[in-house]
Prior knowledge:
The complex is a heterodimer. By secondary structure, chain A is an all-alpha fold. Chain A is built from 13 helices and 2 strands; from the N terminus they run ααααααααααββααα.
Amino acid sequence: MELKKLESIFQQRIKDEIKIEPKDWMPDAYRKTNIRQISQHAHSEIVGMLPEGNWITRAPSLKRKAILLAKIQDEAGHGLYLYSAAETLGISREEMIEQLHSGRAKYSSIFNYPTLTWADMGAIGWLVDGAAIVNQIMLCRTSYGPYSRAMIRICKEESFHQRQGFEILWVLSQGTKDQKAMCQDAINRWWWPSLMMFGPRDSESPNTGQSMEWKIKIKSNDELRQQFVDMIAEQVKVLGMTLPDPDLKWNEKRLHYDFGEINWEEFWNVVNGNGPCNKQRLNARRKAHEDGAWVRDAATAYAEKRNKQSKVA
Amino acid sequence: MSTSKNSVSKENKINYILYLADTTLILSHRNSEWCGHAPIIEQDIALTNIALDLLGQARNFYQYAAELIGNNATEDSLAYLRIENEYKNLLLTELPNDDWGNTVLRQFYFSVYQFYLYQQLQKSDDEQLVAIANKAIKEVSYHVRWSGEWVVRLGDGTKESHQRMLNAIENLKNYLGEMFIAADYETAMNIDLNTIQKQWDEKVTSVFAEATLPLPKNIFNHIGGKTGVHTEYLGYILTEMQYLQRTYPNAVW
């Protein structure tokens, strides 16, 4: 079939909201954009295990420890689905991991912030997973089939994650003076980085236009960010805590919350490697991979031996 | 276990349950240190799963012990507010993880022991212990399979992995005997450790043969864990684990 015909079939499918599947023809740039976005998403799940992993051995009760372990295990599972979804586009997990470790692939900058107190486990669940859900609910409708299906599965678990985060903070908000202070401090530190998770303003986001045309993205960064602010500004009242933004105010005309300006200099600094934990996170991933090389080699060598034996027999 | 309900003193029973609780909790703690750092994502999930299973078992044992102790004891007061010499876990479980080979070999040794031990608990006169063992033995038989497969894969994998398994065998060999040397409270509970040891030997011998690994030799048995005399490692584990409960006494989390 000639290229023009293929392109028009592809465009028609996008228009009719019929999912694009691995064996369908697709423009190279569509494939590349999806690989970039899905692998970035997978890396975020895997790197995202580290800041929470930091509190497993110090969780304050056995129940909290069990919930935290299960949650981080879910994230590893999400990473796996997403790597598999990206693999359908013709890239291997090994290649994607290499891109992460060499710094060519990005992951969500939020995970370059440190987890300093137990309350951070609550703030991550409530704010970070909350922001992720807003984005992921949209992605359930994304045009690439395997990505969309992975998102539908992941969203179910994420809403449990957000609830457990809120519940951690809720208990702290009802606790001692120290616990209340710990709760407010975590909200103060995680609020702005959570807003940054939606990416640059629409006017500064070079990929948004094409991604929306292809229905990889359904809503823009600023729309999603606004949706998140409106949700959290209400929920924070239940905790009896505040968000660290003097400009946060309900706007009767817009029927949305107005909010202050994000520190974009900080945003770009963290994106470009100068966040508080960029080095530690990437080093931890590289170390796990390098220390594990002999294990993977042994597993491969053993499987090959077994294969040979079963052929002989 | 043919003991009738009344012949075991309450103190012995509590100590025995705490031995089971502490041992599973401390091994869960060590395994959980791998979370996010394992060699392959699938295996990260598998080992975290084992950590979760062991933690679940520990919680069941602590809850039961708390019930027997009374006095407002809870699973958390028992895990978070007892000190080193009150902990009764096996020394084997508190040793550092070292590499992946050492971790899976320790898990294998322990899971095999736990499997035969729980088989005996399934026949106990104590209904609670029977219930916990019935639930847990399904998990443990998976742990035996998973860790046994890794012992074989690494033993019979590459030259390097074989050498690393030899190192792990050396590393752990003096901490195996403690599983089979009875503390007073175990004797009182009528646990037949001789039978468990025989079953354990048989299983380990057959998996090691498949893994082309030699059985440990020249063994000296370090003991003390069961009666609260530990290695230097346990203090650090508890310091980390108990940090929040100690820093903010009586807070609810």
